[in-house]
Amino acid sequence: MRSVSRLLRYKNIYDIKGSESLFVDAMRENCRFQYDNSEDYRKILDGMNFSPDDVKDIDGVARIPFLPTLFFKTHRITSYKSTKHLYKATSSGTNGKFSEIWFDLGSLWSAMIMSLKILKHWKLISARPCNYIVFGYQPKRSNKTAVSKTAFLTTLLAPALHRTYALKYSDGKYEPDLETVLEAIQKYSTKKAPVRFMGFPSYTFFVMQMMEERGISVKLPKNSKIMLAGGWKQFYKEAVDKKTFYELARKTLGVEEENIIEYYGAVEHPILYADCPNHHFHVPVYSRVIIRDVNTFEPLPNGQTGLVNLITPLYKATPLLSVMPDDLGILHDGCKCGCGIESPYLEIIGRVGLKDVKTCAAGAADLLNTNALSKVIEGGEK
To answer: Is the pTM value of this prediction over 0.85?
Structure first.
């Protein structure tokens, strides 16, 4: 896809306005590819009376029917007749259900270029060896989850001297081993090499909490970083605000706020959102974010809370053009951040299991089963 290649070569990764025309072209090109190659996706677009030719401007992009991530947890959809030469990644799963997302070689290349450009922008790629504490899954061939693969790939941003994993595989399941992690932190703190934490904020916080309760504090080597990704998942009730987290990191690990980086993303929307020095997720040129009204699904102005709709043209093997995770969020004007980036930034309010999202997923499933539009999503109804 030529427009996607041009988008990946775009120099200013946060120039949303300057890249708009190119982004629209890439979305139309990908939408046409999905329509021509995925019978299931074609049924959905036909059922919603939408054509790839309708993607003429950014408003047309906003009208592309979105697929809730819940839909991917119950349906396997791809734009290739054979998955023999495709790469599969899965979500971590919700209530025993998980998404299976397919990637072709070109899509993996796009993901690598996109990620490297963003990580380079934030100076997270280093030639200096590090010791890693991974608050995620110990690698295992049977573990196909995207979060486990992403965590391992992140340990390649700087050469890894050692890797210590918080979630160890034993007797057919993963179990947290925070005592071993605590021992590794104390050991690494006496070395010269920087330490990089990577993974779930929940387990990171739990270890720091253990240290505080036991009166343990260390001073990690200079240039050590805490890199957070994956959200709090099942520990959402234990989630703390960022200020509390940063203060505990300074107190127990000697890591200041400017060396704490958070990422946002999803296997159904493989775009890397890295927070700026003010800890805001600015939207890169490879994606767009729309906040939609929870009742009407209509786009809301910046500054209002609604359902998050994530849009990207980068991936071919699975129709991921427009997806809706179970997140509530706010899109803010970039100028309000103060970091100098003018791209809008996304604030995640929390995860929800709204009936509206389930309704939309069921509606998409109906379109696949009947090849006709029996009910249109309007005003929050199917």
So the answer is: yes
